[in-house]
Amino acid sequence: MTTASVEELRSRTRALLSEFDPADTEPLDFLRARFDAGLAWVHFPVGLGGLDAPRALQAVVDAELAAAGAPDNDPRRIGIGLGMAAPTILRYGTDEQRSRLLRPLWTGEEVWCQLFSEPGAGSDLAALATRATLGADGVWTVDGQKVWTSSAHTARWAILIARTDPALPKHKGITYFVCDMTDPGVEVRPLRQITGEAEFNEVFLTGVRIPDTDRLGAVGEGWQVAQTTLNNERVSIGGQRTPREGGLVGIVAGTWRARPELRTPELQQRLLKHWVDAEVLRLTGERLRQQLTVGQPGPEGAGTKLGFARLAQELTGFEVELLAEEGLGYDDWTMVRPELVDFNGREAGYRYLRAKGNSIEGGTSEILRNIIAERVLGLPPEPRTDKDVPWKDLAR
Amino acid sequence: MNLLYTEIEEELRASVRDLLADHSPVSAVLARIEGPGAYDPALWRQLAAELGAAGLQVPERYAGAGASLRETAVVMEELGRAVAPVPFLGSAVLATTALLAAQDSAPDDVLGNALGALADGSRTGTLAVPLSSAPGRPFTPTVTLHPDGTLSGRVTSVADALGADLLVVPGPDCSLHLVETGFTATPRTSLDLTRPLADLTFDRTPARLLTADPAALQRALLTGAGLLASEQLGIAEWCLAATVGYLRERRQFNRPLGSFQALKHRLADLWLDVVGARAAARAAADALATEAADAAVAVAVAASHCGTVAVRAAEECVQLHGGIGMTWEHPAHLYLKRAKADHLALGTPAHHRAVLAGLVDLPA
Fold first, then answer.
1. Inter-chain contact B259–A294, Cβ cutoff 8 Å?
2. How much is the pLDDT for A298?
3. Nearest-angstrom CA–CA distance, B80 and B85
């Protein structure tokens, strides 16, 4: 990071702000102008919302814009687009795809979702069975079922992986597409989960038409393309500093302090253990953040999610037990489709049930342990019986 | 709060590691524990005199290196990793910290002589307390002070007391006294073969008052517990690395044992605990070095977590090595014994959590 480039970014940001005063510019117009000024994601290429600048410099822009009260693109609402689709489009997209898709993705005009998991392909994602066949007219026809899709009911686009050659081994016959969610063959149904609400959807694809110009990467190269998507899913951890007792442990500690009548010696012992675990996990994340700042990323990132899931489940289970009679209740079983999900929102019973998903979503804890064992510790893989067998011959 | 290792700290680590690899491989440690004295005086001279490791936290005006407890903690990591039989904890950590904590009241020439000798390794010392003493709870002295300033009494289970030239002894009201002659150290048969304990006896032993302030003893115990976490990190890292290495090589059922998912998952969980131990131990060392307001919290967290992780790592190491891990010839037992003794040293994890309850307002 050079002083000159920091200064340059500041002056570009100020120029944007003086041309488009946030006070009397429509938020969408401001966001489009910001994208066109290269200040959307400065590490992206010039012309695609960026300036080919170091990623760390984004903070300079964000600070200037926040101080001026500029609108943002509500990144939590469009997390899949920003975090997963965009890096993949950038790496594998054609020039036409990049200039067509990235701008409305970043401004939030077009919400994205991810059509990867299937009822028969969870941890073994490469076994997926959704079929795509290329017609003589150069258009693909897609049939299959996807599951655990958040934002499917609000999304304009999906990133989709489908099987294009069943005669090849499973990793080799997959192709990556961009799927228009307004196609009449796309049917979205809410998937109610153990909390009572439906954060996710099932997506049924029946004769969905995808032009070959909406393919990302080569035919049969979908698995490699998907790795870019999945690696980016876990990249944003360790970005922010968390204060001591930030998050769930602070909620439980607050209840402990406020409600002396709930305390027992045995619960105190357990709470102190959880408190220490939370603090150690916080320090682990802080150490990872410091490593990233000085550009020496350690393998700690692979373990943060594993540790978070374990802690969240222990703490939420503890909280329900601590609440005694109140723990027998539940706030609301009504089926709703929330736009945003806060693991720590609502009440103890909800937190307990929602935390069960933490060790399943985004890679199960079992898969994460395999990744740590093989890629960090260098232990040998399990013998594989499925690698060189044509997908159509696998047991399903 | 800097949780990373500086370049200087990494260079120090490399020097200590090289020295230990050359002069104290685990095979030599195994041979030494069978002999009359576990401690290795030649190794100590090199560590203290040549590398200056014993005087890292001693200011330059007392002939030390003028570094800090962060660097001292890095040495503790490496000594733990090598289960090195040297009196670093007693001499360079506990006694040295106690002497430094008495700076405001002790005569400067007395302090200077003692700290200088501990720093250059020409003498070794320790804090005359049972190794199970812990910060954050009242200490009960077992030594009485006579009107002529001499001391009488007995202190049991003292680490690094065998062969010690000087002692910092807690007297009535947790005052601290310097003793350089006229005491006896009787060896105990200890669980940890590489850090043998001894009972100290004082009988009208000449002593000099260092400080009447009980805070000095608490500072020494807190520092000891905080830096012991770094030793526990070193132990855990060795146990994890040794186990991973063994499971990569060892073949049963026509495949490497490390390819079995049941074992991989155990090691992945252990790895995560060790990663946490590294962050917690660094946080404690940094908080102590910078005299941070919440140093006691950082120490309690590190001591609770690292103490537990070191034992778990050593127990997994023995179990996953199978039969060979149960033999005397394999070094795993040295680490298990050190880890279990460290579990009780300077406060158990349960003790540190009880202290934490008061520090962070989670009352009973």
1. no
2. 66
3. 10
Question: A294 and B4 in contact by Cβ < 8 A?
Answer: yes
Q: Domains along chain A?
A: 1-72 (no CATH), 112-233 (2.40.110.10), 248-361 (no CATH)
Rounded CA gap, B108 and B97, in Å? 15
Q: Residue B291 falls within a domain, yes or no?
A: yes
Does B260 fall in a domain? yes
Find, in chain B, the residue whose alpha carbon is nearest to that of A279: B301
The pair of three-digit structure tokens given for residue B258, joined into one six-digit string: 């490390």
Is A261 an active-site residue? no
A contact test, residue of B230, B232, B299, B301 with most A CBs within 10 A = B301
Q: Which long-range contacts does B120-123 make (Cβ < 8 Å, 24+ apart)?
A: B120/B48, B120/B49, B120/B54, B120/B55, B120/B63, B121/B44, B121/B45, B121/B47, B121/B48, B121/B49, B121/B54, B122/B49, B123/B165, B123/B166
- Structural domain contains residue B47: no
- CA-based nearest distance A278→chain B, Å: 10
Nearest CA-CA distance, residue B233 and chain A, Å: 13
Question: Is B285 a residue whose pLDDT tops 50?
Answer: yes
Best mutation target, A280, A365, A368, to test chain B (most B CBs within 10 A):
A280
pLDDT digit string, tens, across residues A243-300: 999 999 999 999 999 999 999 999 999 999 999 999 999 999 999 888 877 776 666 6
Query: What would the pLDDT profile of B35-62 be if each residue is shown by its tens digit?
Result: 777 788 999 999 999 999 999 999 999 9
Query: Can you tell me which residue has the tokens 């002529």?
Result: B148
Asked if residue B293 is part of any domain, the answer here is: yes
Contact partners, residue B327, CB within 8 Å, separation at least 6: none
pLDDT digits (tens, 9 = 90+) for B224-252: 999 999 999 999 999 999 999 999 999 99
For residue A281, report the phi and psi dihedrals to the nearest 5 degrees.
-65, -40
CA dihedral angle for residue A150, residue A151, residue A155, residue A157, rounded to 10 degrees: -20
Angstroms from B265 CA to nearest CA on chain A: 5
Q: Do A382 and B260 touch (CB under 8 A)?
A: yes
Q: ipTM of this predicted complex?
A: 0.96
Rounded Cα gap, residues A91 and A390, in angstroms: 28
Question: Taking the alpha carbons of A331, A334, A338, A343 in that order, is the dihedral positive or negative?
Answer: positive
Does pLDDT of A241 surpass 80? Answer: no
Q: What is the dihedral of CA A345, A347, A350, A356, to 10 degrees?
A: 70
Chain B hits for A281, Cβ within 8 Å = 276
Chain B positions in Cβ-Cβ contact with residue A283 (cut-off 8 Å): 3, 276, 279-280, 282-283, 301
Q: Which chain A residues are closer than 8 Å to B283 by Cβ?
A: 283
Domain span including residue B348? 216-359
Q: Name the token pair of A371.
A: 């990744």
Decide: pTM greater than 0.90: yes
Confidence at residue A67, expressed as pLDDT on a 0 to 100 scale: 94
Q: Is the pLDDT of residue A355 over 80?
A: yes
| pLDDT, tens digit, 9 for 90 and up, residues B9-22 | 999 999 999 999 99
- CATH number, residue B281: 1.20.140.10
- Name the residue in chain B with its Cα closest to that of A287: B3
- Residue A4 pLDDT class (50, 70, 90 cuts): low
* Under 8 Å between Cβ of A89 and A102: yes
CA distance B308 to B274: 10
Catalytic residue selected from A110, A233, A286, A339 = A233
The mean per-residue pLDDT over the stretch A145-171 comes to 97
The span from the CA of B220 to the CA of B123, in Å, is 19
* Contact yes or no for A279 and B255 at CB 8 A: no
The answer to whether A132 and A142 have CB atoms below 8 angstroms apart is yes
Which residue of B lies nearest to A263 if distances are taken between CA atoms?
B364
- The total domain count for chain B is 1
Cβ contacts of residue A389 below 8 Å, gap of 6+? A169, A170
